[in-house]
Design brief:
This protein is of the alpha/beta class. The protein is 43% helix and 21% strand. Helix 7 packs across helix 12, helix 10 runs antiparallel to helix 12 and helix 11 crosses helix 12. It is globular and about 65 Å long.
Length: 272
């Protein structure tokens, strides 16, 4: 909720003498939001370069690992538990000019296929909500980091505006572990497993706002409307799991835009 107003608005106030056209025009002005690509500026601020080795945990198809290899010249190990992602990642690496710097491995955050102190940086983008054992996963990330190494964590958390019924439906359609949706819970787990929170950027809806303005993301509200109205036909055409995943993704994007979810970007430092 933007504010808890002291009293409801009246009909006279709603249809008063304020300028509706001017208000609409005002809302058409861009607030110049940062794009999600600025996460790599955070990586850059940590001095990552060609001498470093980065772990992209939950790296899906290797896209972000390849972007880091190209931008920083670093070696990157992309670890993901989903076979389809591993297959796509291997194909992407084979076709990319900087693919020789990226290694794709099957694994999960709770059991990282790497030795102690192998990485200078752990990069975690939008995957923390799926982790069953957060303490175990963070302890593993600490194990594979060099002393004083950093972890960049982009994660999405529920806000006080998220209603219980909404949360239950969203999490079920998005393979989310409900306990992972608490920012306070994440911070407590990070500190208890040997990390110091070096910085926190509450991005909120800014990255999603930028993706809407730049035409890089769909109209989530329109998708939800179509998914609801043509449910039977779409399930028959694409299958139940695809339908539910698409519905969950559209809800996720819409809830970020209206503030029921918020994006946060943490920089954690491995304590000695």
């Amino acid at each position: 909720m933007i504010d808890s107003w002291s009293k409801p608005i009246t009909i006279e106030e709603m249809y008063g003498e304020w300028d509706y056209e001017a208000a609409v025009e005002l809302l058409e002005r861009s607030l110049h939001p940062r794009s999600s690509a600025t996460i790599f500026d955070t990586v850059d601020s940590l001095g990552v370069g060609a001498k470093d080795v980065v772990l992209d945990i939950g790296g899906r198809d290797g896209r972000h690992a390849l972007l880091m290899a190209e931008r920083f010249g670093c070696r990157v190990v992309c670890v993901d538990p989903a076979p389809a992602n591993i297959e796509a990642g291997i194909e992407a690496v084979a076709e990319h000019d900087f693919g020789h710097l990226v290694d794709v491995r099957s694994g999960m955050m709770e059991h990282i296929p790497a030795g102690a102190g192998e990485f200078n940086l752990v990069f975690s983008r939008d995957m923390m909500n799926h982790v069953a054992d957060l303490d175990g996963g963070l302890a593993e990330c600490r194990r594979v980091l060099v002393p004083g190494g950093h972890m960049v964590v982009h994660a999405v958390f529920a806000t006080e505006d998220m209603e219980p019924g909404e949360a239950e439906r969203l999490y079920a359609e998005s393979a989310v572990v409900p306990e992972r949706m608490s920012s306070a819970g994440f911070e407590e787990a990070a500190e208890s497993t040997g990390f110091t929170i070096e910085s926190l950027d509450v991005v909120g809806s800014e990255w999603y706002e930028a993706s809407q303005e730049n035409g890089l993301a769909p109209n989530y509200a329109l998708q939800i409307s179509r998914l609801r109205r043509a449910k039977a036909e779409l399930i028959e055409e694409i299958g139940e799991f695809a339908y539910r995943s698409m519905y969950g993704n559209a809800l996720w994007g819409n809830y970020i835009l209206i503030g029921k979810l918020e994006t946060r970007l943490y920089v954690l430092e491995r304590s000695s």
